[in-house]
Amino acid sequence: MEEIYETLPDTIREVDVLILGDSRELIVPCGSTLGGGSSIKLMMYSRTQQSDYNSWNVPGWSAEDMTPYLRKLETYHGPGPRTFHGFNGPINVFGGTYRANRSGSHFVQAAGNIGYHEIENLTSLDANNGVQRALKYTGTDGTRQDAASRYSILSSRVEISEPACRCKLASKRVIFDNKRASGLEYRPNPKLVVVPSGALGIPSILERSGLGNPEDMKKAGVDVVADLPGASENYQVHHLLDETIDAIVGGRLDAGEPIQESAAILGWNAMDTTCKIRPTDAEVAALGPDFQALFPGDPYLAPALQYFTVGLDRDDKAKFTTGFFSDIQGVDIKKHVWAYKKQGEIFRRMETYRGELPILHPPFSPESPATLIQLNDEPAPNVMDIVYTLEDDQVIEDYARAHVETTWHSLGTYKMGPREEISVIDAKLNAYGVEGL
Ligand SMILES: Cc1cc2nc3c(=O)[nH]c(=O)nc-3n(C[C@H](O)[C@H](O)[C@H](O)COP(=O)(O)OP(=O)(O)OC[C@H]3O[C@@H](n4cnc5c(N)ncnc54)[C@H](O)[C@@H]3O)c2cc1C
């Protein structure tokens, strides 16, 4: 395990030009270990909206087609009608062994005050514009529900060494016998070659193997086996502003204590509420005609700059950029500014609210109604929506550009769909232009 861990990249680093004349490196964290992201993820339970599945427009992969599999993977311990969920799957979905109930309830109440009411089952695939007390990928004892242990990869010693071997051998490239995938370095002639290396790992491995954008492969000296330009397109990840005020990081809590006591707080991920919200029609209109023309739709409208491509060896730096805030219409940044204001209106109405944290607050001018406030013992009285000026909008925008981070949910490379839409795999997950992969 240790050896494998050390041979895989921990993070993918990216240099993005976010502010004119300045540049900042954004990091996409990924789980470079057995179980991948599921071994380090935040355990937050959510499901894709049905419109997302249906937008793939691939027979056999609609929301209706996917629902039996969504049920099959879970043992659901949450609220809501049983029709939407599964009760015999390997992954437990549970409310957690610990919750910060007071602030959670205040959030639900405050969101309700501005029209986002509590929805019992926000994961019904079409529920929207509501909040829910969050569920987690944890067992009823608070244990992480990771892919490696829940799918029994670790159930016997023999099986431990098998996926471990594959991880290591897969790490360079797929071998082709003419157009047929025939092995992963030292494992010749299997019936089928599967490369489960995640949205970040797959493009590099397959481009090193000759499947990808011919231009990029030529530059890297790789012979073309299949011309699949989509391999280095369509990468998507979403952005957020985030800051940790963690008791362990802050030195207020020794991590050893809760571990020794098997404390219930170990089953907590500090996310007690979750929500899905969209701008209203009036808000969309206020964001301008460019935004209106493109909404609702794919929020990642900056594909021209998003790609991930080949390096000659596994440790070579990938050519990679998220494309955050780079679309000329400014739709991506406008969405972020809208979300900043909206979450502020919820927090300002929480009974627990006592003002903003200076380290997390954009530097509005002291005259702005959005300027930093700190309250003493009482929540804010008679809260009205802040009316932001154009200058305030600019402050939020600059702050977002300077502080935005990536959010761990990489997807989209090696896209499934018709080949003419520069997709890379078909509805049966076979790569176009070759066999057995
Ligand atoms: C910090 C973090 C927090 C997250 N929080 C949540 C959350 O709360 N809720 C949620 O639903 N999702 C969350 N996610 C996202 C979720 O973990 C991923 O979407 C999911 O794990 C993707 O699964 P995957 O199988 O596609 O790829 P991965 O889980 O990335 O698995 C890819 C595997 O391939 C291996 N690999 C890569 N390159 C090579 C190579 N060259 N050779 C051999 N092996 C290779 C990797 O080591 C890894 O084991 C989080 C992710 C991260 C990183």
From TrEMBL:
Fetch the InterPro entries from UniProt.
Answer: FAD/NAD-bd_sf, GMC_OxRdtase, GMC_OxRdtase_N, GMC_OxRtase_C
> Is this entry keyworded Flavoprotein?
yes
| UniProtKB keywords | FAD, Flavoprotein
UniProt cofactor(s) = FAD
Q: Give the Glucose-methanol-choline oxidoreductase N-terminal domain ranges.
A: 22-238
Q: Does the keyword Chaperone apply?
A: no
State the Gene Ontology terms under molecular function. flavin adenine dinucleotide binding; oxidoreductase activity, acting on CH-OH group of donors
Q: A Pfam family name for this chain?
A: GMC_oxred_C
Which residues of this UniProt protein bind FAD? Answer: W408, H409
Q: Where is the Glucose-methanol-choline oxidoreductase C-terminal domain?
A: 313-437
Q: Which family does the entry's similarity section mention?
A: Belongs to the GMC oxidoreductase family.
Put simply, this protein is called GMC oxidoreductase-domain-containing protein
Organism, by scientific name, is Lophiotrema nucula
